[in-house]
Amino acid sequence: MKKIILSICLFCAVQFSAQGLAPSDTSEKSVMRYKAMLKSNRQLIDYIEYTFVNKGIPRHLKNLAVIESGLDHTQTSSAGAKGLWQFMSEHANGYGLSDENRSDMYQSTKTAAISLKNLYKKYGNWITVVAAYNCGEGNIQKAMNRANSRVYTDFDQYLPAETQNHVKKYLNACYASGELQQVLNDYKNFTGGKNAQKPFKSDFSASQEDLVETRLNGAFKIETIATSLGIKKEQILAWNPNIEQKLNEKGESEFYLPQDLMVNFLMNKNRILSSSLKN
After folding, report:
1. What is the model's pTM?
2. Cα-flanking dihedrals φ and ψ of residue 185, to 5°?
3. Fewest CB within 10 angstroms: 62, 130, 223, 258, which?
4. pLDDT at position 102, please?
5. Which of 243, 271, 272, 124 is nearest to 193 (CA)?
6. Nearest to residue 65, comparing CAs of 93, 95, 35, 44?
């Protein structure tokens, strides 16, 4: 039986390598470490999987919490990320999760489910979702722009080394939990599907009906917003005709973005304002 399982795991690893994706550590020590972590936190894992399945998220996404925090809800990173899912304040607040509840296993898991679902709707595969969760949507868009592709194995070289390693750790955890093939199938379906094959556009297309609104004051610079979101200034102006004139004359204006970009903007609003004031 062990030989059969090992053969299946090796087959999966070969298939991933063929697509440019592969776990970086399939050693027995690595596998046992991940399995021990899952086994000692069985009740928490059951809750995460239950929450995710109800949101249409595959069970293997529990492994994101494994590599983010080691399933330790008291974990705080040097950058200030907290909890099971290592939420930064801006990310958490953007989804209505308070700073205090970032360390709440149950509230943060519900928030993580919403965040991951939104990312999947945008990117269409879980590999890119894991990368975006680590480095942010702006960095993903910049990498896609440079590679002129939305396929992870085309643009991953333009991502931070930390993010590339994060994805490899995720593959390691999925290998250990026996869920590598599921990740492979999802990625294979994406790369062979219409979403990956359609002509790449470095901007975002959205009808006026798809846009959501907020208020913007004159301290913000459109160029800075565009740079932060990883899109062209012209695209923001297409969604917001005459916004620069309104900001100059009135000191404020309504501001429209697609929902996914608006979430990104609101999560990073203070940082974008600070950069705008410096420029």
Report:
1. 0.70
2. -60, -40
3. 223
4. 94
5. 124
6. 44
Residues in the chain: 279
Q: Which long-range contacts (CB under 8 A, 24 or more apart) does 217-223 make?
A: 217/247, 217/251, 217/252, 218/247, 218/248, 218/250, 218/251, 218/252, 219/273, 219/276, 219/277, 220/247, 220/272, 220/273, 220/276, 221/276, 221/279, 223/279
Q: In the predicted model, is pLDDT for residue 259 greater than 90?
A: no
Q: Using CA atoms, how far apart are residues 207 and 14, in angstroms rounded to an integer?
A: 42
The fraction of the chain above a pLDDT of 70, given in percent, is 87
What pLDDT, on a 0 to 100 scale, did the predictor assign at position 111?
Answer: 92
What contacts 125, CB < 8 A, 6 or more positions away? Answer: 152, 186, 187, 189, 190, 191
